[in-house]
Amino acid sequence: MEGISVEQAVEQILQHTPVINETEETELNKAGGRVLAQDMVAGFDNPPFDRSPVDGYACKAEDLAGATKEHPVRLKVMEEIDAGQYSEREIQQGQAVRIMTGAAIPNGCNCCIYQEDTDYGEDTVEVYSEQKRWSNYCFSGEDFKKGTTLLKKGTHIGYVEAAILAGMGVAKVPVYRQPRIVLLTTGDEVVEPGIPLPEGKIYNSNMTMLSVRLRELGIESFHMEAVKDDPTVMSEKLKEAAKVADMIITTGGVSVGKKDIMHESLRLMGAERIFWRVKMKPGMPTLFSAYKKTSDITATDHCASEREIPIISLSGNPFGVAVSIELLIRPALEKMMQDPSIGLKEVNGIMADNFEKGIKGRRFIRAYLENGKFHLPNGLHSNGVLSSMAGCNCLIDTKTMENQESRSLNAGDKVGAILL
Ligand SMILES: Nc1nc2c(c(=O)[nH]1)N[C@H]1C(S)=C(S)[C@@H](COP(=O)(O)OP(=O)(O)OC[C@H]3O[C@@H](n4cnc5c(N)ncnc54)[C@H](O)[C@@H]3O)O[C@H]1N2
Ligand code: MOO
């Protein structure tokens, strides 16, 4: 197979991929999936007060010595404290307060009692069990202490991290700005879904695949366009895209046919070819270029700065696009977004089925991993066929086959894969 290895391809893509260091503030509710651009330090103890974890009563544990159902201890109930209320009262020997879960425990108390262990009394209460000091008692700061760094710069914000930020009282979250990715597809045979299909045409599945996958990986902002098979038009579109993009992804037109326009389009644009062809199936004819863009001189910034924009041109076959997104684009996004959660996850397992095609070179095979076993979907494994990939959750990498010389992959073989 012609070309460089997948690893070399990734290395070269990374070399020409910028890290986005610009930051912005986003609303807390929109922070999920973003990456923190600053350490987040607690500004107060949480909870800010000692609180009851039960609905019941708070009192002094010493008062309850020897309490049983037969010989209850009777305490005077001074007041009721519900969650959200605060009492300045100092509780004395023989006294208790009625208290609800989450309410601030008043001074003088050192335990809380489940109301089920009492007679639910209003003015006085009979308590049926002893308590140790500090039992059913949550201390202020048990969640976090003022001055503690709770989340570090570079943290991927998931639902838990977002909720921690909410608990800290943060409404605007400092995050790295999102990469601006422009998606262009080529192909005179390709039309957009939603219109009747003319003879000789197919619907554009690559654009939707790329945009939805990017969204799944946390990238919302991008521009998309289907461009006809004309190198002059495409080179203009590429130049336009380069004005706004941090990265450009194209599909189709990278092979050797008369209409494989990407080579000429990128030359006309003035982009530098870094590599063409990767030793992998599908996605072999992937073309990677870098475009040096000089930003305009502005009034405030008198020196023109040069920026490099990576242009990843994928083959048109939809399964090739699906595989290349994972192997080539994800590592670039991981670097660009400084988000380790985007990195590839590798898994090992055992083949449950035979792979019926012969294996030449390094191949990535769609599969479904369940309980350590790789199941192959029904339907063709051709590179232009996507329908059989529905429901698959991994790509088997034939480089991980125990017997590298083997041309077949059979049930029982140990093999590795990347998770989708
Ligand atoms: N003589 C040779 N022919 C081919 C070679 C070769 O080495 N010598 N390589 C083959 C391999 S491998 C691949 S992969 C393809 C790559 O072709 P291109 O990247 O130039 O892609 P296209 O020709 O434009 O399209 C390939 C295939 O995918 C369909 N397609 C394209 N765009 C879309 C889209 N947006 N949505 C859905 N489907 C799309 C297109 O209609 C073609 O069927 O070249 C082989 N040929
Ligand atoms: O590299 Mo192509 O995607 O094998 O069919």
Walk me through what this model shows.
It is a single chain. The protein is an alpha/beta fold and 420 residues long. The chain is 17% helix and 26% strand. The protein is built from six helices and 22 strands. Strand 19 and strand 20 form a beta hairpin. The radius of gyration is 31 Å and the shape is elongated. It binds ligand LQZAQKY5 and molybdate ion. The site of ligand LQZAQKY5 has 27 residues, from helix 3 and helix 6.
Can you give keywords for this protein?
alpha/beta; Molybdenum Cofactor Biosythetic Enzyme, Chain A; Molybdopterin biosynthesis moea protein, domain 2; six-stranded mixed β-sheet; five-stranded mixed β-sheet; 22 strands; 17% helix; binds molybdate ion; metal-binding
Strand content: 25-35%
The CATH superfamily of the largest domain is identified as: MoaB/Mog-like domain
Taking pLDDT < 50 over at least 5 consecutive residues as the criterion, the unreliable ranges are: none
Approximately how much helix is present in the residues?
10-25%
CATH class of the largest domain: Alpha Beta
Query: How does the helix and strand content classify structurally?
Result: alpha/beta
Mean pLDDT: 95
> Strand sequence of the main sheet, in spatial order?
13-10-14-17-16-15
Number of domains: 4
Number of strands: 22
Give the radius of gyration: 31 Å
Protein name: Molybdopterin molybdenumtransferase
Family: Belongs to the MoeA family.
Function: Catalyzes the insertion of molybdate into adenylated molybdopterin with the concomitant release of AMP.
Catalytic activity: adenylyl-molybdopterin + molybdate = Mo-molybdopterin + AMP + H(+)
